[in-house]
Amino acid sequence: MKKHKKDISWHEAFLNSAGPKNIKEAFILALKGLCMGTADIIPGVSGGTVALLTGIYQNLLDAIQSVNLEFIRQLFRLSIKQAVSTVHLRFLISLMLGIGIAILSLAHFTNFLLQVHPIPTWALFFGLISASIIILVKEVKNWRGSGGIAFFTGTATGYFLVGMIPVSTPESWWFIFLSGMIAICAMILPGLSGAFLLLIMGKYEYITGALRNPLDINNLIIILIFATGCAVGIAGFSRLLNYLLKYYYNITIAMLTGLMLGAMRKIWPWKEVLQTQIIHEKLYILREQNILPAKIDGMFFLACGLALAGLILVFRLEKLACEK
After folding, report:
1. Is the Cα torsion angle 9, 10, 11, 17 positive or negative in sign?
2. Looking at the domain assignment, is residue 287 inside a domain?
3. d(CA 164, CA 59)
């Protein structure tokens, strides 16, 4: 007698979900997730590009699309086993394990670099993001008409938007949630960096700071709120982005490229602090402006060298992805 679908065991439900077929495949997928997580924590390097490079980009999109209305309907009906069997759970668990390990292990290091060596670190980020913009520019096939208008509109919007956003943005739950929704876009779109989006919103150091000590109750709350925003963002935005790229590819890419270019003023390594404020014994930078290097010294050449290294790294990754 054939077993009814509702009578399947937890083990069968898990095996019915799409993903690695054995331990070896799960380990390889986790390693690819480790590479994606490393990219996601570095502004300018896109986790989507790494997914494309490692050959799992389409699987990633399929896994995201598997979290659909049917999955949610099964959850509301408390048909948990049925929900598990329809979503690509084995794929997501293996991939997210690798991503999580990379993010947790690198968050402390990047936060330390920003605090102790800001100019060289920002210079590296500047080079990484500049290369990403150049790569996206090549994706725009038609600059006449709507493509060019979208690019210049995006550039102006990005430039003025980051100027309006204060250096220290709110630490309220809704803004952390919103930051997660926006930053997760990088997993969907190759060339766009989630860490860069966090930098624009002034939450990169805040989130990586929380990841340094995830077992602290306050940091854990921050991480959970951010992760929830990521989940909502990837479930909703992936469908919107898929629609825009399918029907308005050139305009969408041109607009995104312009936004990144305009927001580059946020990444300039040399800055002068104009206004600070102490709130609850914490020093907050409220306003700063970009300046030219005060002198041509060893720090200047180090910053230029790191910016060039960032350019070369991203161009190399993109070349490998195209060959793949």
Report:
1. positive
2. no
3. 38
